[in-house]
Amino acid sequence: MAMARRAVEGGSNAPQSRLAPAERREQIIEAASRVIAQNGFWGFAVRQVADECGLTEPAVIYHFKNKVGLLIAVLEHRDREDMTIFAHTLGVEAEDVWNGMVDFGIRELCAALVARNAAQPEMVRLYTVLQGESLNDHHPAYQYFQQREERVLDNMTRAAERDGIENPRREALAALSMMDGIQVRWLREPDAVDLVAEWNAYADSRWPRRD
Q1: 122, 126, 123: which is closest to 41 by C-alpha?
Q2: The overall pTM is greater than 0.70
Q3: HSE-up (13 A, CA, CB side) for residue 52
Q4: Which residues form the HTH tetR-type domain (predicted)?
């Protein structure tokens, strides 16, 4: 088994690539995140990810079974990281946010989302590219994005309900749509568009502060 694994990971690269399985998976996921963000799911090849890690294609497949498995691993990894940081920003437990146990308003919730996204443009690009691709129900991430959007909308709806907003679901959908739109402009012109400032301007016009 050890010999087979060394063969999979390549001859000249073997000495530098003796990582524990969890570390190897994380290295591959980080590389795949960058490659998919640039090329989308349909445009990236496992070979590109392998080259970034100094591995062979079989070494990548060994950890994720196939290209679809790698894509889902990237998305799930990012969700876990984002949820942890997002929850910390709000001063709550990540599990509570995941389960929809929110105790904050929609402005607070959205501000935390935007702040997190502003700190990781490449990851926002990754999700934006894949979200567009996965409008096709044959895309391997179609179900993932359907469920993810529903979860985000549910949390935003509960936050709007807490604020006493009339028709909270509609408010949540409008806020999410605006957020997606501003993020696309920001990704296209990062030097001209300040994501946080643009979002705050929208929030001020939509939900005036009551000081």
Answers
A1: 126
A2: yes
A3: 19
A4: 22-82
